[in-house]
From TrEMBL:
It is a multi-pass membrane protein. InterPro entries: GABAA/Glycine_rcpt (IPR006028), Neur_chan_lig-bd (IPR006202), Neur_chan_lig-bd_sf (IPR036734), Neur_channel (IPR006201), Neuro-gated_channel_TM_sf (IPR036719), Neuro_actylchol_rec (IPR038050), Neurotrans-gated_channel_TM (IPR006029), Neurotransmitter_ion_chnl_CS (IPR018000). Its main location: membrane. The chain crosses the membrane at residues 300-323, 335-354, 366-387. Residues 1-35 form the signal peptide. Residues 410-428 have a biased composition (Basic and acidic residues). Residues 132-290 form the Neurotransmitter-gated ion-channel ligand-binding domain. Residues 454-464 have a biased composition (Low complexity). This is Gamma-aminobutyric acid receptor subunit beta. The keyword Phosphoprotein does not apply.
Length: 484
């Protein structure tokens, strides 16, 4: 066929020859080279139809912009726009009471498509000191918005009812100015392309879906820490349009919020979630607000191992001093001081990981009780040592007085056998000097006075005869005179 065409073109062009060449060319195209070989020619009708549909879709997208003003919401001056919201939570990365240091969350700036959705603060450059109060949580989720814009409706073509276009088309149409009221930081994912999708139906329905990572505030009540439960909320609201223009709602009812299976945190478990719709009243008007409440319960395993069991063992160790000998002063004192200091360190390290709050927590009550018991063990040894010393001093005084009584009895019997009754009457006077010389050997004046008062209390415990009582009283008077 190529040779024929070349031959025809190499000759001078004549009208009759041109018609002949055209006829031969058409015949060659219509007749296959081999009768049994398959035809490799493409289906002209399908190719033409595909080309026509592509041209029509592009024409539809271009025609939607004819007379379209993205600065004006749909139905402006008429009914409000209903914006349906759905969320699919992929992960919950953190739920913390305090800020754990710089770089805990890195927010990146993007091309500005999600600027109306979330107020990006560029948190990657912030310097957050460790231990500062934070009380927030971070979650990664798909955020989808549904609304209807009659200006974007188009006639169906070959059963075409929905258009899925690139996110670049969002800059050419009106979108709700939705934002998160309790957001601290946010991140719009752009790897490998901006994680955003747009769908338009032939009836003007619009679906916008994107992937976001949000850090939102979550005020916590730590009164029952670490056996507490926390309720964190995501607040969704229109920034500039009041309820007269935009009303938010949960698009799929009970299925509007979904959490991925297996979502968990190191210190918390997800109990469930709840959806609410409220009206937020401000000085600029009433706004429709959606609430997604997520309930968490704290896991006790970490605190049992790190706090409760060690503090209990420290209290038990402090009780070991009760079985030690009272005379083992170094062992008992060192054991008591060590347990007190250990409990103090444990209490300080526990409170260092928590925000500085003014009310008492459950763990404070437990650790405070353990500290009191450990400190009481140390005070117990001091009290026992003091009382034991007092008892021993009293026993020594009693023994001394009993010895003095025995000496008086022996002297009385000796005088009664040697000199008769008259000598016995003068015995107290003869022994004044001897008694005074013995009492002069006492160490100080206060001990003499205490000894002189003891016979009046202790002597009636052994009233063997009237002579003993008389001699004891006489001896007491002599001790008082000698002490003066």
């Amino acid at each position: 066929m190529t040779i024929i065409v070349a031959t025809i073109r190499s000759r001078p062009i004549r009208p009759m020859a041109s018609l002949t060449a055209a006829f031969i060319l058409l015949t060659a195209l219509a007749t296959p080279v081999f009768a049994d070989a398959p035809t490799y020619r493409p289906n002209v009708e399908e190719a033409f139809r595909a080309m026509t549909e592509t041209v029509n879709i592009s024409a539809i997208l271009d025609s939607l912009q004819t007379g379209y003003d993205k600065r004006v919401r749909p139905n402006y001056g008429g009914a409000h726009v209903d914006v349906g919201i759905t969320m699919h939570i992929l992960s919950i990365s953190s739920l913390s009471e305090v800020q754990m240091g710089k770089g805990a969350f890195t927010a990146a700036t993007n091309s500005g498509r999600a600027a109306a959705l979330s107020s990006k603060s560029g948190g990657g450059d912030s310097d957050d000191g460790g231990g500062e109060p934070s009380q927030d949580f971070t979650l990664d989720f798909y955020f989808r918005q549904h609304w209807k814009d009659p200006r974007l409706s188009f006639p169906g073509l070959h059963g075409l009812e929905q258009l899925t276009v690139g996110s670049e088309y969002l800059s050419r149409i009106w979108v709700p100015d939705t934002f998160f009221a309790n957001e601290k930081k946010s991140y719009f994912h752009t790897a490998t392309t901006p994680n955003e999708m747009l769908r338009i139906t032939n009836e003007g329905g619009v679906l916008r879906s994107m992937r976001l990572t949000i850090t939102a505030s979550c005020p916590m009540n730590l009164m029952y820490f670490p056996m507490d439960r926390q309720l964190c909320v995501i607040e969704i609201e229109s920034f500039g349009y009041s309820m007269d223009h935009i009303r938010l709602s949960w698009h799929a009812g009970d299925k509007s919020v979904a959490i991925e299976q297996g979502v968990s945190l190191p210190q918390f478990r997800v109990l469930g979630f709840n959806r609410k719709t409220i009206i937020a009243s401000t000085s600029t008007g009433n706004y429709s607000r959606l609430l997604c409440e997520i309930a968490f319960v704290r896991s006790m395993g970490y605190y049992l191992i790190q706090i409760y069991i060690p503090s209990t063992l420290i209290v038990v160790i402090s009780w070991v001093s009760f079985w030690l000998n009272r005379a083992a002063t170094p062992a008992r004192v060192s054991l008591g001081v060590t347990t007190v200091l250990t409990m103090t360190t444990l209490m300080s390290s526990t409170n260092a990981a928590l925000p500085k709050i003014s009310y008492v927590k459950s763990i404070d009550v437990y650790l405070g009780t353990c500290f009191v018991m450990v400190f009481a063990s140390l005070l117990e040894y001091a009290a026992v040592g003091y009382l034991g010393k007092r008892i021993q001093m009293r026993k020594n005084r009693i023994l001394q007085l009993q010895k003095m009584i025995e000496q008086r009895k022996a002297q009385h019997l000796e005088l009664s056998h040697e000199g008769g009754p008259d000598a016995a009457d003068h015995a107290p006077k003869q022994t004044n000097h001897r008694i005074g010389s013995k009492q002069s050997n006492h160490r100080d004046h206060s001990s003499k006075q205490s000894v002189s008062r003891e016979p009046l209390l202790l002597l009636p415990t052994e009233p063997t005869s009237s002579d003993q009582i008389g001699w004891a009283a006489s001896g007491a008077r002599q001790l008082e005179l000698s002490s003066k």
